[in-house]
User: What shape does this take?
Amino acid sequence: MNNDYAVPEAAKPAASVDISFFAEQINKTLSTISYGDNPVELYEPIRYIMQLGGKRLRPLVTLLAGYLFQDDVQKCLKPACGVEVFHNFTLLHDDLMDKAPLRRGQPTVHEKWNNNIAILSGDVMMVKAYELFLDVEPAKLQKVLKLFSHCAAAVCEGQQLDMNFETSDFTTIEDYLHMITLKTAVLLGFSLELGAVLNGAPENDALLLKNFGIKVGIAFQLRDDLLDVYGEQDKFGKQVGGDILADKKTFLLLTAIDQANQSQKEVLTRYKNQTIYSGQEKVQEFTQIYNELNIRAQTEDKINSYFEEAIQSLNAVNAPEARKAMLRNLALQLMERES
Amino acid sequence: MNNDYAVPEAAKPAASVDISFFAEQINKTLSTISYGDNPVELYEPIRYIMQLGGKRLRPLVTLLAGYLFQDDVQKCLKPACGVEVFHNFTLLHDDLMDKAPLRRGQPTVHEKWNNNIAILSGDVMMVKAYELFLDVEPAKLQKVLKLFSHCAAAVCEGQQLDMNFETSDFTTIEDYLHMITLKTAVLLGFSLELGAVLNGAPENDALLLKNFGIKVGIAFQLRDDLLDVYGEQDKFGKQVGGDILADKKTFLLLTAIDQANQSQKEVLTRYKNQTIYSGQEKVQEFTQIYNELNIRAQTEDKINSYFEEAIQSLNAVNAPEARKAMLRNLALQLMERES
Assistant: This one.
């Protein structure tokens, strides 16, 4: 990686800042990263997936967590981008493994190029993610990379569990919550812990922020499960009922299976691997059972419970209230989103 | 990764040691690494490929390079194993990309399990490789990881170039030498530099050793190309003529194409993507042209020239002659191997 790119000038926020200041810092820094040039087949897919956009949620919370402890978030910028590069690496390889044709409405890397290029450009992306961590001050580098590596392995474990669940008939709600914790939540938790550690937070506050991130991450994924069934089609980006059609074991389905009576259970299992029913019919029948079992309210209760836990952790962090409010509001926005 | 495994007791060599002492240290340390347990589909393939064996050449030269500068190679052990884990990660993903059925005579990971498991267990192997570097002393950690990351990206670039060459009609000898430098030689160069850096070598000696490794690596690959055609079937592990049958652009083929007359060129291109001729006929006709053009001697000259350069670099390293002799003898063995 070419590391001699310009350092953004004003990473020190003005006295009164809002979240857009930090988002801008992330976007500026991401735009200055040069991943590599030759061979072009290896590096072009990296630029492609990084430019597809996304919320940049993970690097954003790294900066917000860092800002809790120091005005200056300069030293968080490159590692925060390392988290974003790693996140996009997981999307690239996951899409390949899931044979997904689209990502953010655009062709996935293995579709646009081919499987081998997706494997190899993903591999080099992980190297580039590590490289973005290497300017961390020497006294903290080992700790940060141990945390990152631990998190990276956990994300791989989560993806493997998710693939295992596709063919397993014995997935429990507990298994599912464990899987989404690894696949989705730990990276959000690490993103927060990272900012805290880099900007000198006491150990306890860093762990509280990590827990805040993990619990928000779980709640976020459960909300995703919920929107798949109860989202409004014109606001939800994906097809409503997509998880039902794909036989995906979500919190809703696993809870329903757990509580279903004999006839409901028959409906929920009748459709498995079946194409004889129309998709619409399947979605309707499942949704009706979810309604009968009050799955929506149960899922909302679960989401609220995780969210409450998250907020309690954030509340306990010893940092200025106005700064914590930015993280709280961001988490609230994530919970209220309809897509 | 569970890092609390026992540290080998006697990493400090006795007054008089030979290479087997270091090989034993490597094998001991490798056997104590616990990669992870759950999910088993993710970690079993790592143990599988690591237990297939191999020469452990890269970690061995790390220790031998470290031994040039300090009696005690203890601090080189885990990073040396990191190199070996990384090397095996590249074999795992390369075999998948090349659709290779066998590795060291055993089914490859994607054959024994499946493609997705090969992708994901490879990914987590790269994380584990990085983890094995993290106990390097803080003052050197950044430098070591920058060197490693640079090398890791280069290896990916080499693999991409190798795949590009399969479908390109315009590969030059220079392109080929660049590709094998990236794909094969830089990791050997890094392995040596690593041991030197960890054991406090002056910068210049570390770079000389890196160059020694790169030049030996290129010579080693060219020797591999040569053995494919001129090796004795009963000593060579693979099928003689395998590269010819696979239309592989080796140093021998590219040199022959470069120097062929019109009728020879016709033979060398006639067979491309053709199955109408028997394999044996193709190997015979190519070998005859190689003989006519004196390709064997030219390749041997090239190998000797790289080997000479390697030895000159090693000679220039400021370290005890008896210790340098171990590296020189190892390199000589690599050159004299017949398989």
The first helix of chain B runs from residue 19 to 32.
